[in-house]
Each structure stands twice: as C-alpha cells, then as structure tokens.
Specification:
Blueprint: E1 41-45, H1 49-54, E2 60-61, E3 64-65, H2 68-75, E4 79-84, H3 95-107, E5 111-116, H4 139-157, E6 161-164, H5 183-200, E7 205-210, H6 215-223, E8 231-235, H7 245-259, E9 262-268, H8 298-314, E10 318-323
Parallel strand pairs: 1-4, 1-10, 4-5, 5-6, 6-7, 7-8, 8-9, 9-10
Antiparallel strand pairs: 2-3
Helix pairs in contact: 4-5, 6-7, 7-8
Length: 364
C-alpha cells in the first residue's frame, strides 16, 4: 500500500492464534487448484487480520459474532490476498504469521494470493527498501537471495497467486533493482524470482503489480516483456488516480491486448462514510476525493465495488478485483492515534458489523 498509510504498530505477540478469536467453525474443503483454469477473482486483502484479532476485535454479521473469513467466503469471496515482509520488526506479516493465515484461508475454501514485498516493511512506488540482511549484497548474491527466499515462500505457503513485489512502478530492491536507474539489474532480479516460482509449481500464477493506470502503466509493462508472468495487476484508487471508470476500462483493454495477459484490479477500496472512528488520520475524508456518482455511504460503497466488478468482468481481458484494507477497522478504540487510517473504507462498519458491500463479492 501507499507509504501514506505506514503506521507504527505496537508489538502484541510473536504471532497469532491459528484460528479466529471468534467462535470456532467447521471449515469446508479447500478449492482445488485446477491447472490452466482462470476463475474470476473476487478477492479481499486481509493482511491485518491476525494483528487485529490478537487485540480482541470481534467481527460480526447481522450483529452476531462471526469469523471474518467465514463472512467473506459466504458472501462469495474466493481469494484472500496476504502481504509478507521478510524481517518485520514486530513479526506481524512475517513468515510464521502469514503461513498460519494462509492455512486458515485454504481451510475456509478460498485461494491464497501472496504479495511479496521483498522488504522488511511497506514497499510501494515511493519505498522499495531491501531486507536488512540483503543491503550489502552484490548483485550476484542478491539474485541468489531472491531465488532462495522466493523458493522458501513457495515451499512453505504454496500460494495460488504470487506477486513479485508490490507496486513496483520503479522497480524493487533499490538501488540495485531500480527500474529507471538500473533497468537491466531490475529485470534480472524479477526473472530470478519468476524462475524460482516456476521451478516449484506449474499451477501458481505469477503477477506483476503496478500502482496506477494509464500511460504510466503502459510504460511500465512495456519494460516487463522479457519476464515470465501470468497476470497484470493494477492498483486503482479514485483519490490518487482518475475519477473516470472508463479510464480503468481503457487500461485493462490496452494492457491486456498489448501483452496478451489477463488484468486484475489488485487493489481498490471506497468509503462508506467520511466520518472516523478513532483519532488516527484517515486517508479519505473529503467529498472532492470521491467519484460524484458514488457518495460515501453504505450504498455508495457497494455500488462502487459492483461497478468495478462489472467493468472488469465485462472486459475480455479482465480477470478480477481485490478490495484492499477490507479488515482494517478502528481496532484500538475510538481515541487511538495508532489505530486505522482506513476504518471508513473497511468492509465492516464502526460497530464491526459486515456492510452491504459484501454483496459485491457474489458470483453474479
């Protein structure tokens, strides 16, 4: 996610219970991973879920406590996106926590989409800092490290989709993997990661992810032609990108046709209110940050996501969408300054009750 969202999260434990803090449930069988089958992706990023649950938050459906993953699955969500950091300072989003969450997702009958930041913290268009133990490596040794780490993640987590980097608009693993300053090295590092994935699985889909749409995305994916990957991933937020959904459709068409790839809106979100539920500054809080057609209301949020889903679905090159910050409610109380900058864009309201937007994950 964007660097604007970076927060100093308090250590609450090495990692979390492998099951929800809500009532236990009997999990349905996992969805089989069918080679060659591209099912329309209706995804939610739930990376904060273990942290939020560990601090006692209870998610609800119709006022009754319900496991958040169960709510999503029952709504029609078929994929959960999870970020991973290599050496996080508090172990959240580290390998142990992500592996446990991925297992829960599979047991709930959904697919795992792993977002590898190749960093110890947030990686995005403005930040692509290598893990602390890679900072002094030569290019040759860095390529080995990328290969070994990627192989480890494939072995431990066995994701259905894996992103090589997060919003790598100017490359990743800076400075060696900077796309503008060191293009050849960036492409070598991406190729090494792709090769490691392919060597471990014939069914896991590889995504390259750009933060944005339009001409910048076209420039970027023109640089990626030598990389072996399956899906084009785009972040689309009205606050940062165009407020015209036809521009999103145009990007999907242009990129999909030019590169013969399926395109996924890898991140998007929308507010159900411009209010707030803690003292942590929200990213979206003004009417001029919205698309006028979709007010900041329960129905406005739902209709926006339905519009995104339908737009992608009706485009022959579109393959799905992912809601970012789905779980990020104000989990530290109404006066917390280190809570959530996204609670007015979550999929649960200020009482932690599932919102009408959940209907947008249906197959229809």
């Amino acid at each position: 996610m964007k660097s604007l969202i970076q927060l100093a999260l308090i250590i609450t434990g090495l990692f979390l219970f492998s099951c929800s803090s809500n009532e236990p449930e009997v999990a349905p069988p996992p969805i089989p991973n069918n080679p060659g089958t591209d099912v329309f992706i209706r995804a939610a990023d739930m990376s904060y879920l273990p942290l939020i649950e560990s601090e006692g938050t209870i998610y609800k459906k119709n006022g009754v406590a319900e496991n958040a993953l169960t709510t999503l699955k029952n709504a029609g969500c078929n994929t959960i996106r999870i970020r991973i950091w290599k050496n996080p300072s508090d172990n959240h989003s580290g390998l142990a926590e992500v592996k446990a969450l991925a297992l829960r997702v599979k047991q709930a009958g959904m697919k795992v989409w792993l977002t590898v930041h190749y960093s110890d913290t947030w990686a995005d268009p403005g930040n692509q800092t290598p893990p602390s133990d890679w900072t002094s490596l030569s290019l040759a040794n860095l390529k080995t490290a990328v290969s070994n780490y990627t192989t480890l993640l494939m072995t431990e987590i066995q994701p259905d989709i894996i992103q090589i980097g997060n919003e790598i608009n100017s490359g990743f693993l800076w400075p060696q993997g900077h796309l503008i300053n060191n293009e050849s090295q960036c492409l070598q590092l991406l190729a090494v990661a792709s090769s490691a994935i392919r060597s471990q699985s014939t069914t896991t889909k590889i995504m390259i992810h750009y933060g944005g749409i339009g001409s910048g995305a076209s420039w970027f994916f023109n640089k990626m032609t030598s990389i072996d990957y399956d899906y084009i991933g785009l972040s689309y937020y009205p606050i940062w990108n165009s407020k015209n959904l036809s521009d999103v459709n145009s990007s999907i068409t242009t990129l999909g046709q030019t590169h013969n790839k399926k395109v996924i809106i890898a991140e998007t979100s929308y507010p159900f209110t411009l209010g707030y539920n803690d003292w942590t500054n929200n990213i979206v809080g003004q009417n001029d940050q919205l698309i006028p057609t979709y007010p900041a209301s329960n129905e406005g949020q739902k209709n926006y996501i339905l519009a995104i889903k339908n737009l992608v679905k009706q485009n022959s090159k579109g393959l799905g969408f992912c809601y970012w910050g789905a779980e990020w409610v104000a989990f530290r109380g109404t006066t917390a300054t280190n809570g959530s900058s996204w609670e007015n864009q979550a999929l649960w309201d200020f009482n932690n009750n599932a919102l009408p937007v959940m209907d947008a994950f249906s197959q229809n």
